[in-house]
Amino acid sequence: MSNDSSLLSLILFTPLVGALVLLFVPKRQEDAIRWIANVFVFIGFLVSLPLWFRYDSANPEFQFVERLPWIPSIGAEYFLGVDGFSVLLILLTTLMGVIAVLSSWTAITMRVKEYYIFLLTLQTGMLGAFVSLDFLLFFLFWEVMLVPMYFLIGIWGSDNRLYSAIKFFLFTLVGSVVMLLGILAVYFYNYSVTGVYTFDVTQFHQLDIPFDMQWWIFLAFFLGFAVKVPMFPFHTWLPDAHTDAPTAGSVILAAVLLKMGTYGFIRFSLPILPEATIAFVPLVAGLSIIGIVYGALVAMAQRDWKRLVAYSSVSHMGMVMLGMFALTPVGITGSIVQQLNHGISTGALFLIVGIVYERRHTRLISEYGGLSKIMPVYAAVFLIMTMSSIGLPTLNGFIGEILILQGVFVVQKTWAFFAASGIVLGAAYMLWLYQRTMFGTVTNPKNENLPDLSMREFVTFAPLLLLAVWIGLYPKPFLDRLETSVDKVMMRVDSDYTPRFAAVMDVDAPAGAAGSPAAIAANGAARAGGLDETPAEAVAVTRVVAVNDDPGGPGMIEMPVRGGGRRIAAGN
Amino acid sequence: MLEITPLHYSLLSAALFMIGVIGVLVRRNVIIIFMSIELILNAVNINLIALSDQLQDLAGQVFVVFVIAVAAAEAAVGLGIIIAFYRNKETVNIDEIQIMRW
Amino acid sequence: MESIWLIPLLPGIGAAINGLVGIRFFGKRLAGVLASFMMGWALWLSFWAFVELLGTEERFHQVTVASWIPPIPLDTVDGVGSFTVDWSFTLDPLSAMMALIVTGIGFLIHIYSIGYIEHEPRGGVARFFCYLNLFCFFMLTLVLGSNFLVMFVGWEGVGLCSYLLIGYWYHKQSASDAGKKAFIVNRIGDWGFVLGVFLVFFTFGTLDFRAVAEAASQMPVETAAVGFGVISAICLLLFIGATGKSAQIPLYVWLPDAMEGPTPVSALIHAATMVTAGVYMVCRNAVLFTHAPMVMEIVAVIGVLTALVAATIGLVQTDIKRVLAYSTVSQLGYMFLATGVGAFGAAAFHLMTHAFFKALLFLGSGAVIHGMNEEQDMRRMGGLRQYMPITALTMAIGAVAIAGIPPLSGFFSKDEILFRTFLHHGVFVPDRVLWGLGVVTAMLTAFYMFRLINMTFFGAYRGPAWGHGAEEPGHDDAGHGDDHGAGHGHAWHGPHEASRWMTIPLVVLAVGAFFAGFVGVPIAFEAVWPWTATIEHFLHPSFVAQGAHAVEEAHHMSLLGEFGLMGLSVLVALGGIWFAYRNYVERPEAAERLAESLAGPHRVLTNKYYVDELYDATVVRGTMGSAGGLWTVDQRVVDGAVNGTGWTTIAASWVSHILDKYVVDGLVNLTAWICGEASYVFRRAQTGLIQNYAFVTLLGVFAFVTWFLVAR
């Protein structure tokens, strides 16, 4: 498994190496630059494939763990690892990276070298956020992502690009600054309990933060993540950024960047702050439902093709958030699957806009019409992606929506009642868009000679079409990979929850192993029962240390220490 | 024969010095001013040698050698500056050299 | 029976081949033959599955192909359940019958389409057959699926295909509008349907039809005394879905517009199969519905009202396909009436006979439209029976069948429904009211059908004239290519009979429409016909929970009464036919006079009760208005807040800037300024003249030396 021990770093840095290589290529050699960028991002995808095959979906621990000291004085580490959530999102990122880079071949003619360098750097930033198990490292990558995206929008964007770029940057930054306060609060709270300075997320997952503190920290995290998702009142940066970004930028924004917010919730907010999560469910669900209906209605009013797709993102991400905050395994599973689906279908829809934008340099819906006749293959791809977006069964969107709505329904029927109206409105705005652009006669003479999809363009769509059908017909491989991760989150937010892997794990897990559900469940029970216990009085708290003697990826062992105890030597 | 006493040397030196000073102050040609500066230096030299003899101390004569060496270097640098200046301004008239003016 | 999953898959494969390869490479004939072959194969498999099913004792067979959604724990009413869905298919009497209808009629319509669509461009033909095969794939998934979600796959999928096929001539605005309307209205129904499905899972912990039925059969019947419970809620939500798919009040408005599609599509999707999906779904969940008598009552009332309303609109329509469309809505209302009174067998029976005669009527109208060079207005037809005798004869058989004249199929099925309605005791509605409305509808049905037949095939020819070689030369090529809406593009030589591709399916369907009723002969005929109520007995196992071996209720009244009812409905039908004959054949001007004398009601009917206008003014405008309004809110308020924050920040920064520039930096600059001003005095000393400097230096030396000498 020597290969596995550095797999994540390999995935993480391949695009960055590509960016560095590009620095040494003369900027006049644009084709060479394009080739190099494509090759590197494709290698990046290839090296991420082992994650799909080698990820052990029966193992509830973080896998492919890498751990090195980074800033020892404050306890920050270079700590990477993945679970089911991040595996799927990493694969989505590397795949969408390939598609985004490939789709830029002819679209970008100005400052080609800088463009690809930014795109590759962005790729590393996003991957870093998904693989980090150190909160500070996560925050680093979280901020690193902003910079290339800012330039991508600001330099290669359209009309109002500077406004949009600055809005995107500042909006996200405001959220993340508040989030940083939350991170520090958890960090210092952890120190006050364990006496160890660390940003180790797996350790944070075991904390029992008092409710009042959880409430504030949740609010801080919420602001950071909700902006990124984006949730209803914080969404206005998204239509501007999506509309003005270059096609590849929109694709990455929609497919991957928005997932940062939801990933943040599932990785940090829910497991670290379970009680506050439960307390915030009505608020989040309410905002999500508003987002679903509101996003759909506003999308209907759009005259700009790209902006319409952008608002549909608001609606879909509302669905994702609603499923997550149903706090049922079906809802959370559906939420993650829907994130993939949104990445696939909305990413494809932005590519679709990009194709005609590249040919006609306008995004106004009224400029088009009757394209079915001129670009039949394009129309067929668009049709499938429209259907995927509105959740037609046998395509991917349906699986996510049905899981989310079913998961929500058993919790609160009125939520499902209103959220399901999104499927009507979704059909309305998407079909109307399709009718206005694809059907009818060609009224605009400029459209008469538009070429259909080229081979390269079709190749960018092919994996998305395949995935849409695959997830729609046979989502089991995806759902299986989520099983243990969903259960771990569920155990944090619901102390009565019996995980599915309990039966398998209880037999051979050594007593006291932190990974064993018994220990985690006991932890949860203690938390549930001991809310009135102030941390200073806590006698036994748990401290998790990584040990590297487990060949199947480092396991966690749990050591009891006295309250406020000193640092314990690593287990090995 | 008139006995030449250190006083004579001093008077000669003072006269030369004054001639040099007046030359520096009133002449307009930079070259002349330069020569006047040489006069001043040599007036000092005479004084130094005379007193060295009278006091039976070689240090004065050593100083003279130094002064001559420095004067030579100074002449070289100074003439260089003058030539460079002449090339730019085509004049060596000191009244027209006032680039250090406020 | 093990390979029933192949039945839907075969047309699916056909659709994939035609869609991926055919559009680019196949000829017209090849695309059509391939699609028809796949349907024929599916028909063959369905037939053998049916035969095998008859051979089993249990009359139930389920095949699970793969896991779709693996088990995930989820709370239900009874604690933690497991949400899981399999790709599984069920063969039982109901689904076997439906599979036979879909594949059988689908096969015939595929054959017919080969002839109908031959004037389309090559790629368009392959696209058409791709959609048609895809539709059959989804429809068969719908009828064979053994749980709610697999059914929902078909349910939504047929909606998609309906959308694509209605909008087949997508360059026509009306066609793409109609397709969009159909899809969105269906989605409104689906909204209810999915909520019903969620409630099913929440209540029963499973989505499998059979398991749900078994669980439901253990629960009390929610009569008016028990109250409106969870099963009633489920049934009501599911029925909302059915009103969308099966075009019932209030969601029927999409079906008449759907006639924008090619006529074979109208026959297959909007008459024979897809629109009956709602009825099928209700029959499939018969156990649930029988446990919710109040909802059953709602179903019956909606059904009979839809039947009546649609029939009245059908009275005045002049577009041949729209008459048939409203007739379809009306007949579907009959089916819901049947399910509402608990006569699920009768509903399925009528579904089957209706599939035959309505497909026949639609295909016949297609042949007429084809022969009349795309003319759909009956006022410009007339006397066509001499030009297209086979079409005229087969359509007449269809009309007689739907009017309910014995011994054609429609008589048996419709009479069974009316009979069962007559016997039904409602919860809220007084007895016999539903029956009375049903009988009135039967008369209207007979009238408008024979109005159609008479206006089309009898009387004098009122259509456009055609010349013999009068067209200018080259006309033959002029219209070729793109303009499908306006005509075939070939010279029109007057009304003509359709090709064999189209007439043979007509004849086969006519035979079916004639004889299909004999599988459901009323028990009253026991003395003369030994095989009574065959189809009811056959289907019965599908309508009761397994294990609960409920005896079939006997629905008997005195023979005299039963024959009296039959006689009445035949008389009513004959009355409608006579009235149509009098007004449209004997005295064609009488109809116009009637319309003039009843101008008010006539206008309301012609405008379809202004329902479209009402929906447009409320739902559509409301949605679009709120969309526009919310967008303004989004830009002005939500984004306004963001930009406001931005502007506030900018304003604050500007104020700081002013402060910084003039106050803080002002002090710094003031210091510099004072120094600068002072320097004016002193810098005069700097003459730049070396001699001045030297002179001053000299003076200084003298002064110093003087001071030195004197002060010492």
Number of E-type strands of chain A: 4
Shape of chain A: globular
Mind telling me the CATH class of chain B? Mainly Alpha
Strand content of chain B: under 5%
CATH topology description of chain B: Helix Hairpins
Written as H for each helix and E for each strand, in order along the chain, the element string of chain A is: HHEEHHHHHHHHHHHHHHHHHHHEE
Total helix count of chain A? 21
Summary tags:
heterotrimer; A: 572 residues; mainly alpha; two-stranded antiparallel sheet; 21 helices; 5% strand; disordered C terminus; C: 712 residues; 26 helices; elongated
SSE topology sketch:
The complex is a heterotrimer of chains A (572), B (102) and C (712).
Chain A: H1 7-23, H2 30-54, E1 63-71, E2 76-82, H3 84-103, H4 112-131, H5 135-156, H6 161-194, H7 201-204, H8 211-228, H9 237-244, H10 247-272, H11 274-300, H12 305-325, H13 329-360, H14 371-374, H15 376-389, H16 396-409, H17 413-438, H18 455-473, H19 476-493, H20 502-508, H21 517-529, E3 540-546, E4 556-562
Antiparallel strand pairs in A: 1-2, 3-4
Chain B: H1 6-26, H2 30-55, H3 59-89
Chain C: H1 6-25, H2 28-55, E1 61-76, E2 79-91, H3 93-116, H4 122-144, H5 148-166, H6 173-204, H7 209-217, H8 230-245, H9 254-257, H10 263-272, H11 277-284, H12 286-290, H13 293-316, H14 320-340, H15 344-371, H16 389-403, H17 409-423, H18 433-457, H19 475-478, H20 500-515, H21 534-543, H22 559-586, H23 589-597, H24 599-606, H25 611-682, H26 690-711
